[in-house]
Specification:
GO terms for molecular function: 3-hydroxybutyrate dehydrogenase activity. The chain is α/β, with parallel strands linked by helices and 252 residues long. The chain is built from eight helices and seven strands, in the order βαβαβαβαβαβαααβ. A seven-stranded parallel sheet has the order 3-2-1-4-5-6-7, with helices on both faces. α3 runs parallel beside α4, α4 packs parallel to α5 and α6 crosses α7.
Length: 252
């Protein structure tokens, strides 16, 4: 990929977001790494001093507006909506405030960030929006009602924005991986072990990898390569789509 982009990545301080930040910074792009944890962003800057960082809360519309207002003329032409969190609980025990937080960060926050980024993309007649979804944008698992609802919502959101941006060179797509070995997934393993009364190894083998015929975790490199493709000229007419990295999960 020869073009150099201004790429804003949310949830950039750990897991998938950190892998994307490292990848695009190494490739020479101008990266704005966003996360709620200022201390984690400070640590990121020690290794990647060329990366600009912004700390704000995706569940707060005012903070989103302030963050974009601080960018000035450095508005992104690529937006990667990656920030996410998880809570594992039966619905009747799901704390309402936790349910609302997951939706606010992963669905409403994504919509508000996209809303903020679109005007400059339209002016420049170029934009690439990549939502990091999940296999749970396509299928469900028990005890993850808020997460599954948010990720399913991303698919419909992306299709709608794809239709609204048909007249300019802007695309929006959702990348839907199976389980990626990240700190978020590590925390899920522990939660699922408690919920299902299993060992953590049983959770990995019987819950996470069993639905995937290939029985392998998705790697960060697979995700960065997929996002690279979506930014390439070859993908200019791919919009409103799900790119599924699931080891055959949904082929069954």
């Amino acid at each position: 990929m020869t073009a150099r982009h201004r790429i804003l990545i949310t949830g950039a301080a750990s897991g998938i977001g950190l892998a994307l930040t490292q990848h695009f910074a190494a490739a020479g792009h101008r990266v704005v790494a966003c996360d709620i944890q200022q201390a984690s962003l400070d640590d990121l800057r020690k290794d990647l001093p060329q990366v600009r960082t912004l700390a704000f809360d995706l569940s707060d519309a005012g903070q989103i507006d302030a963050a974009f207002g601080s960018l000035g003329d450095d508005m992104p032409d690529v937006l990667v909506n990656n920030a996410g969190l998880q809570h594992v609980s039966p619905l009747e025990e799901f704390p309402p405030e936790k349910w609302q937080l997951l939706i606010a960060v992963m669905l409403t926050g994504t919509a508000l960030l996209t809303r903020a980024a679109l005007p400059s993309m339209r002016r420049n007649n170029f934009g690439r929006i990549v939502n990091i979804g999940s296999i749970h944008a396509l299928v469900a698992s028990p005890f993850k009602s808020a997460y599954v609802a948010a990720k399913h919502g991303l698919v419909g959101f992306s299709k709608t924005v794809a239709l609204e941006t048909h007249d300019v060179d802007i695309t929006i797509n959702t990348v839907c991986p199976g389980y990626v070995k990240t700190p978020l997934v590590d925390a899920q393993i522990a939660s699922l072990a408690r919920t299902h009364h299993l060992t953590e190894q049983q959770v990995v083998e019987e819950i996470m990898l069993k639905p995937m015929p290939k029985r392998q975790f998705i790697t960060p490199d697979e995700l960065t390569g997929t996002v690279d493709f979506l930014l390439s000229p070859a993908a200019r007419n791919i919009t409103g789509q799900c790119l599924v990295l699931d080891g055959g999960w949904t082929a069954q």
